[in-house]
């Protein structure tokens, strides 16, 4: 904790920017859970992006887009069980409405 006491603006930039993006993501997650709490209409997949791939939100370089594409595919494979359960609950919820 003592090292944090001597940090200047530059040292706080990286953790601070991560805090802001994480906070925005968490707020969206909280709001969607509040809206869909009683209905099974929301599943969040939140894969970790390691520090070597963090960048500006508007980065549209092919390499970065390719990384995000593969990250999304991996998140789907890693969460296949949850995705299948979510799909079954949506189908069941739709059947109950008829």
Tell me what you see in this structure.
The termini are far apart. This protein has four helices and no strands. The chain is mainly alpha-helical and 98 residues long. The protein has helices at 2-5, 9-36, 62-78, 80-97. The protein has two domains: 1-37; 39-98, no CATH class.
Describe the structure concisely.
With 98 residues, the protein is mainly alpha-helical.
**Overall outline:** extended
Summed up, the helix count is 4
Relative helix content: 55-70%
**How many domains, as an integer?**
2
Write out key terms for the chains shown.
single chain; 98 residues; mainly alpha; 2 domains; 4 helices; 68% helix; 0% strand; extended
Per-chain topology:
Blueprint: H1 2-5, H2 9-36, H3 62-78, H4 80-97
């Amino acid at each position: 904790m003592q090292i944090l006491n001597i940090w200047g603006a530059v040292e706080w930039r990286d953790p601070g920017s991560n805090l802001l993006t994480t906070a925005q993501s968490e707020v969206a997650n909280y709001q969607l859970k509040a809206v869909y709490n009683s209905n099974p209409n929301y599943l969040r997949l939140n894969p970790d992006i390691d520090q070597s791939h963090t960048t500006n939100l508007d980065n549209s370089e092919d390499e970065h887009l390719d990384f995000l594409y593969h990250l999304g595919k991996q998140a789907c494979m890693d969460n296949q069980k949850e995705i299948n359960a979510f799909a079954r609950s949506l189908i069941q919820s739709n059947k109950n409405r008829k």
